[in-house]
């Protein structure tokens, strides 16, 4: 980023489900505080409630398809996308935008892989739980 380049500063926060709404507010507050310390004026707060594996999130896509040069503030990489962060980062850079990760942890490849595997297992266990609930509803429904 050059000194004379002008960015629209965006705060982006995401949680996986509605039960984590408090965490969403905590992320927003943390990112606003960070922006203030850095002297940024955030023009917009964009939020999503949904899986980091779901690339159809409304807020996420509004960032990707924006024609504005944006500096997107996120708390962690996985708040933007669960997998493929580097690709999305390069894509946004090619459009003149950039992502600033506030809590940028340097993880070893092994630690990163472990986090990815835990995420995958968590996602599939939620899907299995949902299927069991659906199966139970079908068994209880006499009309089916």
From TrEMBL:
Resolvase/invertase-type recombinase catalytic domain mapped to chain residues: 8-144
Alphabetical list of SUPFAM superfamilies matching this protein: Resolvase-like (SSF53041)
SMART domains xref list: Resolvase (SM00857)
Pfam families: Resolvase
GO molecular function terms listed in the Swiss-Prot or TrEMBL record: DNA binding; DNA strand exchange activity
Annotated protein name in UniProt: Inosine-5-monophosphate dehydrogenase
